[in-house]
Amino acid sequence: MTGQRKFYLKTFGCQMNVYDSERMGEALAADGFTATDDIGQADLVVLNTCHIREKAVEKVYSDLGRINQVKRQRAGEGRGTVVAITGCVAQAEGAEIVARAPQVDLVVGPQSYHRLPDLVRRARKGEQVVDTEFPEEDKFEHLPERAPRPTAGPAAAFLTVQEGCDKFCTFCVVPYTRGMEISRPVTQIEAEARRLVERGVRELTLLGQNVNAYHGDGPDGRPHSLARLLGRLAEIPGLERLRYMTSHPRDMGSDLIAAHRDNSKLMPYLHLPFQAGSDRILAAMNRKHTAADYLRLVEQIRQTRPDIALSTDIIVGFPGETDAEFEATLDVVRAVGFAQAYSFKYSPRPGTPAASLDAPVSTEIAASRLTRLQTLLGEQQASFNAECVGKVFPVLFERAGRHEGQLVGRSPYLQPVHATAESSLLGQILPVAISSASPFSLAGTVVAA
Ligand code: 5AD
Ligand code: SF4
Questions:
Q1: Is the pTM here over 0.90, yes or no?
Q2: Which of 89, 239, 259, 342 can pair with 49 through a Cys bridge, CB separation 3.0 to 4.6 Å?
Q3: Does 210 sit in the ligand 2 pocket, CB within 6 Å?
């Protein structure tokens, strides 16, 4: 067929996948593809998948059913469609995907994205390709450079600095799908950060499954901590805000805590999962901390940065969790007071140690615990937002709002903030007087600086 080849890319799961999708999109663009939102026009369909919970995997397979119809219809019109599965389902299930969904042509694990254009070429010739090796070479060295955009890009971006995890929480597939912990070198990250700033990025969120365990080589050949990396990035002119996620309580070093006081570009927001409030469950999860350890850490962080907004991840219904143990989770939530949180029903993942534990919690009990927990978390989030009314926050405007003449940005505490403002203010950080709050967002008026 003639004309430019098009790709359709859909991202599931976490911010690491969002980042990976962007890099894959850029690699495909460098190879002559253009992006499309219309799957019927796509010569290449990429599903960048998530394996963290069963539901996430089911979504991928249900999408594949629909994609199969599109592929058949296009084939009827004499047009070929390469269907590629990337991400953590690709890594975890490999060739099993092709067995279950024969319409899939290409399966690529997260460490091989730099090979994507080549692999697509092979698939276009009719080969069924599965590449889930952990290659010798560093994909970041082989992905195309982050070139400037012709038009102003988004003001906030993700930057993966660390991948994989060595913590082996017993419920979690990440150590298997993303492999051992690897930190990118400092200079490689700095170079990417500078290029993103040239594109108009003002805020960077450093990503890693265990980002605060970051220990990449510095220019002096010695490992740098995350706090040191953040210190160096804060020097980049034009880069105004820094964030990072996800952190493990065990790796919350004192220099990182101090950075929340000393690094003026580091935003007062921290995502710090605690997963469960019972020490017996925490031990069964192999979390390597107790509830008291977590509460002590929160206290220390708040002493250093009193206004910090805390966010967390919590699992209910881990095998064997009793009512009293679930109450202990609620106790921790009450003791901390979260600005925001993610909570999940435990989902057994094949190959993880917890999947073979006895005493599953019934779906009904897990669901009712989740509802109670989410009600409490919702109240905390709503009251955190309500307390912001009357304050003035610097807001980084990131996109147009739903209403004409309205922009949406983020407060330092990561809340979405709606304000009436001209689109020329996109990408700028301006003071906004907060006049109202909803459970999930704020609204206000731009005031003179
Ligand atoms: N079941 C439910 N939730 C899980 N998470 C990770 N694995 C599972 C699982 N098997 C949650 C954890 C983690 C977040 C990213 O997803 O809370 O922090
Ligand atoms: Fe999974 Fe996070 Fe535990 Fe690592 S620290 S195993 S990514 S839950």
A1: yes
A2: 89
A3: yes
